[in-house]
Amino acid sequence: MDAYAKTKIFYISIGVWLILGVVSYSGWSKHVLTILTGGSVTIPCHYDKKCTQQKKYWFSEIDESNTYTNKTEENLSVIDHPDQSLFTVTMRNLQDKHNGHYYCVVETGEQSPINIIYETQLKIQSAPDVSVVSSNVSGHEGGDISVKCLYSSGYQNKLKQWCRYKDQSCYTVGRNDTSQNSSVQISDDDGGRSFTVLMTGLRLTDSGWYFCSAGEALSPVHLTVTENNNNNTTEVTGNPQKYYICIV
Ligand SMILES: *[C@@H]1O[C@H](CO)[C@@H](O)[C@H](O)[C@H]1NC(C)=O
Ligand SMILES: *[C@@H]1O[C@H](CO)[C@@H](O)[C@H](O)[C@H]1NC(C)=O
Ligand SMILES: *[C@@H]1O[C@H](CO)[C@@H](O)[C@H](O)[C@H]1NC(C)=O
Ligand SMILES: *[C@@H]1O[C@H](CO)[C@@H](O)[C@H](O)[C@H]1NC(C)=O
Ligand SMILES: *[C@@H]1O[C@H](CO)[C@@H](O)[C@H](O)[C@H]1NC(C)=O
Ligand SMILES: *[C@@H]1O[C@H](CO)[C@@H](O)[C@H](O)[C@H]1NC(C)=O
Ligand SMILES: *[C@@H]1O[C@H](CO)[C@@H](O)[C@H](O)[C@H]1NC(C)=O
């Protein structure tokens, strides 16, 4: 199903907005999160800094429910982090019935009442197509971290990447070109069931949400870079961030 078709279903499920023709859509590429049965996942939804004040929610196509930010239930938390211009969605105890499409939505204003900032499909599997050994890693400024990404045998020949959610910048296994930063090394492991991402010379601005992917399947990872105790830190500037426009 292509992005347009999915969007259309979303329009239909919120038919009023469809009739008004007032949904804006940021056109993400297809993201399929593969999660172990009974497991949990945290998904970041990055929004424009200008949308800090707007209401945000997580929409489930399965039961057509909206869960607004700062709500915590037994198996679902949707928490806003205005300082980082993102809200996170944590789903726990995932079962087959949770398979389906989900959307991060910002209520933007009267002209364009809702803006879909991210959409994803969850696939609950007894052996996830893509997973990570640890989904929450931390390192010190100037130090290194490594992340091991596992994939199922059917994904051996798929494109394997390590990407940052915020600006969708990616590093690709086996690609050797100047656009890839030497501070990130990404290599396929022996046996063809995993690849390893090594980030060296960590900067505070490297903190945030990333994902490992093989083909369209992916698994999110949170990286925390902590400040060193010595004061000899050099000021660095982050990469330009690509955001959708918040119409208010
Ligand atoms: C949370 O998930 C568990 C396991 O599937 C289930 O037994 C429980 O009823 C769920 N809680 C809620 C509030 O849905
Ligand atoms: C939600 O919680 C965060 C802190 O976790 C807070 O900064 C933010 O203002 C809260 N938002 C709302 C709408 O209550
Ligand atoms: C990651 O781990 C740190 C402490 O080790 C914790 O404070 C933080 O909440 C965790 N984050 C997530 C997204 O699990
Ligand atoms: C990348 O390509 C350059 C020149 O083509 C080569 O010298 C270098 O060893 C290559 N690096 C890797 C990691 O393959
Ligand atoms: C690569 O990383 C260095 C610092 O680690 C940074 O200064 C540089 O801008 C980065 N280059 C690209 C293309 O991201
Ligand atoms: C290092 O930072 C601490 C706290 O920020 C400050 O009190 C101290 O004076 C700083 N030392 C130097 C050498 O700048
Ligand atoms: C920190 O900066 C001071 C003064 O600039 C310098 O003397 C010292 O060697 C530096 N320490 C480290 C660990 O770089």
TrEMBL record:
One of its GO terms (cellular component) is plasma membrane. GO terms for molecular function: transmembrane signaling receptor activity. Residues 38-115, 128-237 form the Ig-like domain. It comes from the Eukaryota. InterPro entries: CD300_family_receptors, Ig-like_dom, Ig-like_dom_sf, Ig-like_fold, Ig_sub, Ig_V-set. Keywords: Membrane, Transmembrane, Transmembrane helix. It is found in: Membrane. The chain crosses the membrane at residues 9-28. Pfam families: V-set (PF07686). This is Si:dkeyp-104b3.18. It comes from Sinocyclocheilus anshuiensis.
